[in-house]
Specification:
Elements: E1 12-19, E2 23-29, E3 34-38, E4 44-49, H1 57-60, E5 63-66, E6 71-76, E7 81-86, E8 91-96, E9 101-106, E10 112-116, E11 120-124, E12 130-135, E13 146-152, E14 158-164, E15 169-175, E16 181-188, E17 200-201, E18 204-205
Antiparallel strand pairs: 1-2, 2-3, 3-4, 5-6, 6-7, 7-8, 9-10, 10-11, 11-12, 13-14, 14-15, 15-16, 17-18
Length: 212
């Protein structure tokens, strides 16, 4: 049974996040890239136009995630930027990344965690300074491939996806904040997975909304 449905108004629907009050935050790529908040019936309530330098709908916006109250973090791969918009469309903060970003979330400490298309996951403060990162250099052997999305666990650990399309390998791995590997799992793939979500740990559902 279909509980919710939204039909895109542009070329692509690139991300969706359920918000309180039966609202859903959606990013769309196309001739007019935008962020939309829709109600339970899929009707738009808020629209935020997003300026970008490319016409490629998949490279315009990869993800949009709720940040502070009435704020949205938008990831723009082609522009190599993370922007924080309010619901009126004003940009309050932005960060230009060294590589195309994939996803970004606002952490409880006020910093922003960003996965980059290169082999790097970074934490950025409000001044745009990288204060923590994990890269291939943190491993004794080649282990990180092109990074995808990630999830912050309740204990502070990070689970993230990386993939090597040439070798047709996709990898999920959990890392502590002091960069110790907890576990990893590989699978053979043909295409790079774009999203995942950890639902349970040792059979127990993870409480609260996922930070991902």
């Amino acid at each position: 049974r279909t509980i919710f449905q939204y039909r895109g108004q542009q070329q692509t629907v690139n991300s969706a996040q359920r918000l309180p009050g039966n609202l859903t935050l959606i990013s769309e790529g196309g001739r007019q890239p935008q962020i939309i908040i829709v109600d339970a019936k899929g009707q738009p309530k808020i629209r935020i136009p997003v300026a970008t330098q490319t016409n490629n709908p998949k490279a315009q916006i990869s993800f949009a995630r709720a940040a502070a109250p009435r704020r949205v973090l938008v990831t723009l791969p082609a522009d190599r930027q993370i922007r924080e918009y309010d619901l009126e469309g004003k940009v309050h903060w932005k960060w230009t990344a060294p590589h195309p970003p994939v996803n970004a979330v606002r952490l409880p400490n006020g910093r922003t965690l960003v996965s980059l298309r290169g082999d790097r996951l970074v934490e950025v403060n409000d001044e745009g300074k990288i204060v923590w990162q994990v890269t291939q250099k943190d491993f004794a052997k080649p282990y990180l491939y092109a990074l995808g999305t990630f999830q912050v666990m309740a204990n502070g650990n990070l689970v993230f996806a990386s993939s090597n399309p040439d070798a047709k390998i996709s990898r999920l791995m959990e890392l502590t904040r002091d960069k110790k590997l907890v576990w990893s799992a590989d699978q053979q793939i043909r295409l790079r997975p774009t999203q995942f979500q950890i639902l349970t740990t040792n059979g127990r559902p993870i409480p609260g909304p996922a930070l991902r």
